[in-house]
Amino acid sequence: MDMRHPHDAGKPRRSQTVYAWRPADRGLHLTEWACEMAETAILLLGGLSAVALNFGRGSAVAAHVPSVSLRLLITGMMFAATGSLIAVSPLGRRSGAHLNPAVTFAFWATGHVQPLDLAGYVVAQCLGAVGGTALLRLAWGETAVSIRDGMTLPGHQVSPAAAIGIEALMTSVLVLTILLFVSSARTARWTPMAVWPVITILVWRGATYTGTSLNPARSLGPAVIAGNFHEYGLYVAGPLTGALAAVLLLRVAPLELEPLTAKLFHHPTDPSIFKSALPTANRTHR
Question: pLDDT tens, 48-79?
């Protein structure tokens, strides 16, 4: 899906006048989908373990750090660090480490991801999230139950409409950060470092209002394991709306930026199934 205005379709954007574009690969990419599933499982297990550690029943951290705000900040740092480390891991370098249907949706909207890969990544992310949350329950037992398996729920006196709006705003900040960093060859490899403080701050300031999902798969995993889908729709509508808003904002901005890659950590020695203007390893048929 190319977000360009029809009258602009034949006009090269600034990035196109400098870089040689390679189209996205078509077909099934089972290796990348499997990597994305494993990565999302690790994200949920690691990130929600931070929630259990800092907010679970009998938490030793809570005994020494009574400030809820400070523990939210610590949790945000740990959750975000998990995602950033995954992005630079061999798994993340293979799939691009989207870890989030909203991110994949954004790259599809910019024309970097084929529709089949959009579907494959979203299914993989959702399955990985459920598996990661199941592992959380096994590892943490009653402590996981005490945090409702990491469910995201609106805070007190936060209406459903407000929750959708807050999630949309926060997700747009995250996705726009990613899009801006991957729009330059100089900054593309630093994207994992950029999203670390962004997610940290969003969790710190937004968790009391919505739980700071930013990610439909992140909310789906706990909902499935806890058997509670009561508010889940909010965490699909909000992040996807925010992702689309970020793409549109980048499109109308006067900077003439366009993502050069759909991978959060791009290295020229790694293969890529996505549309890319940056060098990639020779791709083979899968």
Answer: 999 999 999 999 999 999 999 999 999 999 99
Q: Which of 98, 112, 109, 114 is nearest to 218 (CA)?
A: 98
CA distance 242 to 179: 13
Annotate 243-259 with DSSP letters as a single string.
HHHHHHHHHHSTT----
Tokens encoding 176: 């726009």
Contact at 8 Å (CB) between 210 and 250?
A: no
Instruction: Give 23-252's CATH code, choosing from 1.10.3720.10, 1.20.1080.10, 3.40.50.2000, 1.10.760.10.
Output: 1.20.1080.10
Cβ-count burial 39-69 (b if 16+ within 10 Å, e if not): bbbbbbbbbbbbbbbbbbeebebbeeeeeee
Burial code (b: 16+ CB inside 10 Å, e: under 16) for 8-38 equals: eeeeeeebeeeeeeeebbeeebeebbbbbbb
Side-chain half-sphere CA neighbours of 24 within 13 A:
23
d(CA 186, CA 261): 12
Q: pLDDT per residue over 203-218, tens digit each?
A: 999 999 999 999 999 9
Look up the pTM and report it.
0.91
How far apart are the C-alpha atoms of 157 and 151, rounded to whole Å?
Answer: 18
The Cα 230–Cα 220 span in angstroms is: 11
| Per-residue pLDDT, 1 | 47
